[in-house]
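thought: fold this chain, then report.
action: predict
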Amino acid sequence: MRRVSIAVVGVGPRATGLLDRIVANAPQLLPSAVDLTIHLIDPHPPGPGRVWRHDQSPLLRMNSMAEDVTMFTDAATVMDGPVRPGPSLAEWAAGPDARAVADPAVRAELEQLAPTDFATRRVQSAYLDWVFRRTTAALAPYATVRVHREAAVDVRGGPDEPQQVVLASGNTVTADLVVLTLGHLDARPESDEQRLTDFAGRHRLHYLPPAYSADLGAELDEIAPGEDVVLRGFGLAAVDLIVLLTEGRGGRYLPRTDGSLAYLPSGREPVLHAGSRRGVPYHAKTGYRLQGPPPPLPRFFGPDAVDLLLGGDGPLDFRAEVWPSVAKEIAYGHYHELFHGHPERTRMPWEEFLAAFTPLAWYAPATAALVGRAVPDPDDRIDFEALDRPLAGTSFASPDALRETLRRHIRNDLARRGDRAHSADLGAFYALLSVYGQLPRVAASGRLDATSLARDLDGWWHGFFSFLASGPPGHRLRELLALSDAGLLHFLGPDLRVEADEASGRFLAHSPALAGAVTTATTLVEARLPRATLRRTDSPLLRDLLARGEATEERRSGLMLTDPQSGAVVDDSGRPHPRRIALGAHTSARAVAAFARPRSNSPAFRQNDAAARALLLAVARLGPASVQAQPQVASF
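observation:
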């Protein structure tokens, strides 16, 4: 019997997904003559990890409905390993295992949770804890699992020798193979962030650099009631911060007869001023289902289209060469639902429209002409430029004019996202998810121009996708309107600029769309997540690997470079390390979400399966010489 061990560093949902795929593939790939031990290393609770730990505000919620969250593969997942099904969050909540949750408040929420509800993050934490325990129990016939509740600070060992995982205590874990599933990382300050930190220190102000909102308890407590606070950013991080600084300080929302909300302050709230590049909050999540059949995706941006893109010569430019096919795919999802769910608002049969639409380039004049003939109401047509920058070219005569425009924009968004008559937006959302699942192949191919990779794919596309597809539940936008009514939330406008003014010793915020108006604040909060490149990460483990040349950054993006087939860590000479794999948001594989919608062919699930098979094949090679060679691992 040959003893082989794997150390998994970081035991959040991504690691749990990997362990699930090890369970699924072990009967085929794990030699019976191998005694396998899996070490799980993380100071945070295994399963939920740091981001989804139970110990956070009960006011914070997910931005996905319970029926749209799963940790398990299904028949739609394209992978080499077998499907190992399991319940979605909604299905689990309705089952007997949810009744065993220890926290009575979470248990009470689970008893009332509907499939279309947006659960608290504590509920998701309970689900992830259950998935982890279920998965490790299923590992018992194949491996011994040992949990180490410590941080790992280094990994040492050559390509041909066991790896030494150094723990914060100074102890080491010896393993034949190491997997880095570190999740979302914090980052050391950039030069501008350090400059603002120094400015705040000199003038006794508050400056909060990018961080996870749930980790900012002590820092937020230092903000005084009535203090003017600028939030730079208007996405999910901003929404969480607004919740913590208002309702989290004792305020309450009261329903009005017209369906809107009124906010009853506690008197402990600061005064919030929010702005961003777009100047508007992320679109609310839809509150309805498709009215027609699901669009058969992918159609115009699937594996064959990606193969064609990657088969040429020379570097690709994302906006010029990839985006037109992506846009056409999203438009296809939109119009598929419009024609099938609302045929009375179209002027030709779907089959006729699709036959004419299929050969046309997205930006060809003939495409616009076809849509104009087939879809008479401009409000039913998809307009990516207007969606991306809803306030582009707009100027405002006064803060009140900006306020009324923003309030009208939010009300219109709520009405549209809550009205099934606009379910074409949901068709576009389905296509967005499909595109999202194909793009990791493009990113990992090495064909994208390095500048376009960072500026367009990681920059513009990720922001556009998040703006349309990763917004908050609708009630959060209703709360923003109520806070605006109460005078506790003000809108700063698009293309927000913030200056550190030495003369006044204050932060000055202004928008070019509102000439002459300047907001003065004593606190500036970067309402976004940290961008942790390999050079800027606060992880000593990754910094040491980089310093020794045992890891390297992907050019321009700064992400940890990994092999696109196996996930192996690539060193500065371009060689994949045969004993080290890395998965997750900090890697060039770019599959951020560790859980997914059911039947969505999640990139993370595909990567988990490929990595699990690579690990088990490596275990087989390290095992007895009589073990037969196994099939090659599939590409991500």
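thought: worth noting. The radius of gyration is 25 Å.
final: tokens above.
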